[in-house]
Structure formats: structure tokens, C-alpha cells
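We emphasize that the prediction below concerns an isolated chain of 276 residues; any contacts that depend on oligomerization or on bound cofactors are therefore not represented. The input was used exactly as deposited, without trimming of termini.
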Amino acid sequence: MNKKQLFEQIQIKKSFLCVGLDPVLENIPPHLLKYENPVLEFNKQIIDATKDLCVAYKPNTAFYECMGLKGWETLIKTWQYLPEDIFSIADAKRGDIGNTSAMYADAFFNEAKSDMSFDSVTVAPYMGKDSVSPFLNYKDKWVILLALTSNAGHGDFQLHQTPEGKLYEEVIRISSQWADSEQLMYVVGATRGSEFKNIRRLAPDNFLLVPGVGAQGGSLADVCEYGLNKECGLLVNSARGIIYASKGEDFAERAREEALKLQQEMEVILLAAKLI
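Result of the prediction step, given as a C-alpha cell string:
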């Protein structure tokens, strides 16, 4: 999915919601345990209940890798179940020397090798350009580079002052020379709302993947005040607040209700910004 197609989906659905598919077996509704693959069934029902309200799904691969072979199989089958008109994000946070990154890129982008072909993958920039380039070599795919995250320890490195500014600013400034906004996005945590104006100064045209709204306490209004651009430019992720809205047999319906609340709020914001 290219940038134009992504914006079209945002306009059609009046939403820039991304649903995080981060299932923990112990947290899913107990009645699903009767299925051969409870996690896959959980994902399928969440997708069925929310696919008309969101424009992206983001499985965090750690939640699947920890289950070994069956978890990897579940990730593949989850990707295969995603509707074609929805942007898919492998939240893998990879980043290694070039030949290793090339294998990671194959793992998430090369369906002939891995049975998966996500639209995008999250990548850590710490090892520099040669660790990111293998992902960018897939010209029809996206790299979502970690810039300013929502975790408590983000300040340990990301806010470190360099002669040219904060370290996360350097990440954006330098990486923007590697690819344009048709292939490069950035992760910016919703709990860092005060920094969005500065980030838009550095990356005016790039899409931003924004975790931290909902359970982590980020404000959608704060994010949108400075984060919106002429093509929306935001994918706002919510995981726990949607997928764990209920542990009962109504979990999918409740997930839809929570997703609908966010979609309706987003519709108001898009209308006010004259983007729909």
C-alpha cells in the first residue's frame, strides 16, 4: 500500500486508527480456549469486529515469538487473514548489521520465503544506515523508524543533547536522507505530545505511527493538534484499550465499541481539519 492509497483509506473510513494485535494467552477470554488455536481465533474475531473502523493492524511480533513454532505460525495466519485494503505493520523493532537485516527484511517482506509480506516493519536506527537499507531495498514496502518512544526510559538516550540537538532529532534529520516520505515513517509516542510540533518541523510529510493512546495515557487531541498534516500523516495505535475491553463472550463486540469511540473522535478531527 502506497501513501496515496493509505490516505484514501483514511478518507473512506474517516479514521486513522491502528489496532494493535498483541494477544497474551492468559488474558484472552476463557471460552476461546476450546479452539485448537485460541490466539488465532481471538485475532480473527477482533479483526472481523473492527476492520471497517481502522486503517491498520499492528501485531507486535514478540507476543507471537514467545510461543515458539505455534506462535510464528499464528503470526503468519494472522497476516494472511488481514483484509487487503488495510495497512499491515510488523512491529518487530529489528536492527542489526546489514546481512542480518537483509534476512529480517526477507522474514517480513518476502512472502515466497516466509509466507508473510507485511506492508511495513518497525526498525531500530541505532546501528545506522547500513542496518536500515536492506528494508528500504523493498521499494514497495515501508520502514517505520523508532524516533521518540512512549516508554518511561525514552529519555535515557532519545533526549540526549548533541551539538545538533536532541538525539531523536538527529535520527529524523539523518534518516530523512535515506528515503522519502513515500517509504519512511517514524514512531512517535502519544505521551510525547509536546514534541509533535518539533517533529513536524523535521518531518513535515512523513506518516507517524503513534502508540500510547488509551491505556498508556496519551491524548489524541494533543497528538492531532500538531501532528496532522495535509494527508493526515498519523496512524494512532490502540491495543489493550480495544482488544481487552472484555474477557467475556462479548469481547469482540466490546472491542468494536472501543474502536468506534476512537473512530468517531477521529472523524470529528478530520472534518475540522478539512481532510474529509
